[in-house]
Structure prediction request, 265 residues.
Amino acid sequence: MSYPKPRKWLGQHFLTDPRILGRIADVLAITKADTVVEIGPGRGALTEQLVSRARRVVAIEIDRDLAKLLREKYAGDERVTVIENDVLDVNLGEAAGGPYLVAGNVPYNITTPILFHALEFPRAARAVYLVQREVAERVVAAPASENYGALSANLQALASAELVFKVAAGAFTPPPKVESAVLRITPRADPLVSADEEAPFRAMVVGAFGFRRKQMQRVVRELWGLGADEAAEILARADVEPTDRPEVLTPADFARLLRARTASD
Ligand code: SAM
Prediction:
């Protein structure tokens, strides 16, 4: 089969090694009852592995030429639906039409928006992504560790995350400049923030890490324009040490902080 030239601006780096592709699909623990939404199927190499394990695959591809090739390949195959669109404009649960899993070797320039988009409601039971290794390390980082930051706290408030294995750049055509890693995300049955709290929570966490070197007593004042007494009261109610820096706060600490602030309004 001849393919169009890879489009760099769409993050097109294709995987061909069937062993790695099979391992990615295995990490998702797919059964014959499952619907899998695939993000960025490209030339369909991972799609093949998903189709052989799942009941249905809904593949969302933005590239018109690649979407056409996939439609042709799976014409008449009821197990595969190809949606030609920007994944960020598709509600994944609606596209799946019921419970679903997510898989994707995703374009690296929009990994973070994709991770959070795929956590919108209704959420998948679990998701597996091939992402830039450095992003995977930030997603799974524990509080007080080197890579812990806003991405870690925001994602871990909604889901658990594991870096399952690393993939060398040479496994892709064309090879990207960075190493990759397989990331498994499992939405929490008891998310630390509700749907309504998500946006203010994210803004607060991003804002707090903007003051990474400051202590929380200063961070809270700067973030919310408060006086010292009010800031101290909110931190006490949230059970957060005023002298701690944002990088040691757990996602649960941040969630309590948001609620303590809301309660003071
Ligand atoms: N899954 C294939 C593989 O493993 O070889 C391709 C992976 S490639 C890293 C990323 C794919 O995502 C490309 O096919 C690209 O066209 C597609 N893509 C890029 N931006 C997208 C978007 N916003 N929505 C849907 N697909 C997108």
Residues 198-264 form a domain with the Helicase, Ruva Protein; domain 3 fold (CATH 1.10.8.100). The chain has eleven helices and nine strands.
